[in-house]
Design goal:
35% strand; 8-stranded antiparallel β-sheet; mainly beta; 0% helix
Length: 139
Amino acid sequence: MVTLELQDKTSNDQRRSQRIVLRVGVTLSGTTPNGRPFHEAAYTLVVNAHGAFLPLESPVVHGQVLTMRHNKTEEELFCRVVRIDRGNTGHPQIAVEFIQPSPRFWRVTFPPVDWKPADPEAPQTRPARRVSPIVSQAA
């Protein structure tokens, strides 16, 4: 199990923004610890208004500043590595936090922090219908 820590809690242990499981193509740029520049295409696993969690093969260090480019919009911003993990597959995954909060970067609307599924104003979802499989009979 991977722990997602995007340092997005305030002093009273409330999240600054809702996490959303969202796959967005990005390109991260920076310098490896040995001084070599890198540009790596990646995709997000989880995003929020303050950063993301994503796999990254290039070596980075905690606190390192990277440039993140949204591949679809080509918008770029600076982010800082706040966690480095090995996922279930053993591949490196990192959590990054934007230097400046940028909730519009992902092009999604984040629900309010206090929005709970039981909230009467929350959108209601309907249970999926069971569909019988189609059985064909050879003639």
